[in-house]
Amino acid sequence: MHPTAEDRLAAECQTTVITCARQAHAWAPSIGALIKKTGRDGRFDLLTALDFPHLAGNKEVLTQAVEDAMLALSLHKGEQILVVGGANVEQIVAAVREQFHVSRKVFPNPISEDVPINSIDMGPVPMPDARCRTLAITCMDFRQHDNDLATKLAMQLGLDEAPHILAMAGGAKDVEGTMRRSRLTLAQINDYRERHDLRTIVITCHTDCGAFGGSQMFENTAHEDAQFDYRLRVARGVLRRRFSGVAIIPAIVRLADGRIGTIERRDP
Ligand SMILES: [Zn+2]
């Protein structure tokens, strides 16, 4: 179904969260409630890094995350960036603040200097589940992340477990998009595979995605699906060549009423 005026109105999100891909699914249910305590609604665009504890020292991934946060702020009329982490969260916040001021000067859309960059310290970080064999690459869009995408991916795609979530601006486009974005994404997945017994990568697009100009760019659902299938096919090819032996599952996340409706496995 095509988005209604209400859907577009719902495409505003006050908070962009930057956090750890391996903890995102454990923390996601609490993040919304904690944001509400700050007087804002609990929805959040989600950006994650696979090696989040060392984000402050990984300049390229940090820059990409901050630029994606700026994109989220300008696309969804955001008001704050929230860094959610464990013991060293303040160190990461300091790095994000510094990078924000650097990137702001080159970011094409005007972004206020006064955007608050706050943090939530989740306390001692639980040991990352080293047995997790499934990684999902998704867009940052809040309409997927405020209602537990990882669990829904597992249920609707018949996965053995809730995947770790690598969330950036674009989903499949992060694998086959610009050179820098693609290189960084593949490098992160490669690092992840070296530490985990990676067996499955879920690669997704979602309906009404800002990275594709939104649903209004397409004549109808079939036209939008065709564009997603093309992107998913290219991304699957890139991942297959790079990570032989890892199963690649392409999927479309269909939004309905500003939330996840259904998640559909594709064979593009
Ligand atoms: Zn999107």
TL;DR?
The protein is an alpha/beta fold. Helices cover 40% and strands 22% of the residues. The model has no long low-confidence stretch (mean pLDDT 90).
Q: Strands of the biggest beta sheet: in what spatial order?
A: 6-5-7-8-9
Topology pattern, helix = H, strand = E: HEHEHEHEEHHEHHEHEE
Count of strand segments: 9
CATH superfamily of the largest domain: Carbonic anhydrase
Distance separating the two termini:
21 Å
Q: Helical amount among residues, as a percent range?
A: 25-40%
Poorly predicted residue ranges: none
Q: How many separate domains? A: 2
* Proper CATH architecture of the largest domain: 3-Layer(aba) Sandwich
**Structural class of the secondary structure composition?**
alpha/beta
Could you report the average pLDDT, rounded to the nearest whole number?
90
Largest sheet: 5 strands, mixed
Count of individual helical segments: 9
Round the Cα radius of gyration to an integer and report it.
Answer: 17 Å
**Highest CATH level, the class of the largest domain:** Alpha Beta
Name the overall outline.
globular
Description:
The two termini are 21 Å apart. With 268 residues, this protein is α/β, with parallel strands linked by helices. The protein has helices at residues 5-9, 24-36, 59-75, 89-104, 142-145, 149-157, 173-176, 179-195, 221-242; strands spanning 15-20, 44-49, 80-85, 117-121, 134-139, 164-168, 200-206, 247-256, 259-265. The longest helix is centred in the C-terminal third of the chain and has 22 residues, at 221-242. The protein is 40% helix and 22% strand. Strands 6-5-7-8-9 form a 5-stranded mixed beta sheet. The chain has a 4-stranded parallel beta sheet with strand order 2-1-3-4, sandwiched between helices. Strand 7, helix 9 (221-242) and strand 8 form a beta-alpha-beta unit. It folds into 2 domains: 5-121, Rossmann fold (3-Layer(aba) Sandwich), CATH 3.40.50; 134-265, Beta-carbonic Anhydrase, Chain A (3-Layer(aba) Sandwich), CATH 3.40.1050.10. Zinc ion (ZN) is lined by residues 139, 141, 206, 209-211.
